[in-house]
Amino acid sequence: MSLAPVIAVVGPSGVGKDSVMRALVARATGICSARRVITRPEGEEGEDFDRVSDAEFQQMVAQDAFALHWPAHGLLYGVPHAIEEQRERAEAVLVNLSRSVLSQAQEVFGDLIVISLTADSEVLGHRLSARGRESMAEQARRLARAKTPLPTGLARVIEIDNSGPLEVTVDAILAKLQPESA
C-alpha cells in the first residue's frame, strides 16, 4: 500500500496558508490536514493546533513524537507521527510547513508536493496587521522575509498567488493538483 502524498503549504506570514488549507479540505474529498503541535502562547490563536509549553515540546522530541519538527519565529513546531496514519487513509495530507524545513520534509515524507503561496506586499501587510498577533516591528521583519526563496532540489512545487479571492486560489490549486493525482 502506497502512502498518500504530503502537500506542504508554505509562504510568508499573512499569505493565508490556514485559510487556503481549510478551503481545500472543505472542497476536495480525500484531502485532510495534519494537526501541528506549537509552543504558541495563550491568547495567540490561528490554525487548529495543539498548544504545549517549551518543556512539553522538548519532552515530545525526546520521546520521538514527531515526524518533523523545527524552530521558527521564536516558537517550536512539530508534525506528529500521526501524519503517517493519515497518509494511509487519505488521498493527500496538507500540512503548514516552514520553507526552511522543506528539504528535510522531502526526505522524511518522500512524496512531497509544495504549494508555495505568494501575495502582494500590500496585501501581506494588511493581513498581518488585521490578525493582530505581532508588533509593528515583528510585522516588518516578517514582511522582509516574505521573499525568502524555496530551497533547491524540491521535486514538485506549485506556485500560487493568493492576493485575490480565496475561491480563485483554491480553484487554481485544485487545477494544478489534478495532473498530480491522475
- CATH topology name, in short, is Rossmann fold
Total tally of structural domains: 1
Distance between the amino and carboxyl termini: 17 Å
Number of helices: 7
Mean pLDDT: 89
User: What top-tier CATH class fits best?
Assistant: Alpha Beta
Radius of gyration: 16 Å
User: What is the H/E order?
Assistant: EHEEEHEEHEHEHHEH
Summarize the entry for a quick read.
With 182 residues, the protein is α/β, with parallel strands linked by helices.
How would you sum up this structure, described in words?
This protein has 182 residues and is an alpha/beta fold. The protein has one domain: Rossmann fold (3-Layer(aba) Sandwich). The chain contains 7 helices and 9 strands, in the order E-H-E-E-E-H-E-E-H-E-H-E-H-H-E-H. The chain has helices at 17-27, 54-62, 82-89, 102-109, 121-131, 136-144, 166-181; strands at residues 6-10, 31-33, 36-38, 49-51, 66-72, 75-80, 92-96, 112-118, 156-161. The chain has a 5-stranded parallel beta sheet with strand order 2-7-1-8-9, sandwiched between helices. A 4-stranded mixed beta sheet has the order 4-3-6-5, with helices on both faces. Strand 5 and strand 6 form a beta hairpin. Helix 1 crosses helix 7 (166-181). The model has no long low-confidence stretch (mean pLDDT 89).
